[in-house]
Amino acid sequence: MEHTVVFEQKATLIPKDMNRLGKETIDSIILNNLRKNLEGKCNQHGFVVPNSLEILSRNIGQTDHGHYTGNIIFHVQLQAKVYNPVSGTILTGTVEKKNKMGLYIIYKDAIRVLIPRDLHIGNTHFEKIEPGEEITVEIKKSRFQIQDSFILSIGVLPSGSGYVAGPTSESLLGPLGTNTTVSTEA
C-alpha cells in the first residue's frame, strides 16, 4: 500500500522567493514550495506522505515568457512515498465514529475507511466495537481526487476477525427453512 513513486512536476519561483537565495539554496526553496503544495494531499499516484518528498533532479530554469512576471519555472523530478490502497489491502486503523450507518476508521490521517453496518448484520464482534479502538479492516474500494486531503475507502472486517461478510447460512435456505437442493437424477 505504501510505495515510492518518481514523477515530474513544474515548480515556479517568484521574485519574492529569489530574495531568500542568500540564506537558502535554490533546491531548498523549490523543495519547500513543493512540500507546501504536494505533501499531505492526493496527487495522481495517491496520498503523498508528509516529509517524504525529495528532489532527484531539476533543469536550470526558464523565465516565464509572455507574462512579464519575473517568475522562473523549473521542471523537477521528484521522489515521494505515497499511500494508494487497492482492493484486498489489510490495514489497522482507529475507529473514529460509530453510528447507524456503520464504522468510520482513520489510518494515519491519510485514509478514511467506511465499514457499512449492512455487510455485518448479525455479527456480534462488529456490534462490540467502540470508538477509539484499533481494528483491522480489509479495503474493498478506494477513491480520491487530486488535491484531496485524504483517500476515502469502503471496507469490511477481514475473515480472520471471526466473521466473513457475505451471505449467511439462513439466506441459503429455502422459504420454509429447508434446504433447497435440486436433484439431477433422472
Automatic annotation (TrEMBL):
Q: Which organism is it from?
A: viral metagenome
Protein name as annotated: S1 motif domain-containing protein
Lineage of the organism: unclassified sequences, metagenomes, organismal metagenomes
GO function term, MF aspect, one: nucleic acid binding
Domain S1 motif, chain residue ranges per copy: 88-155
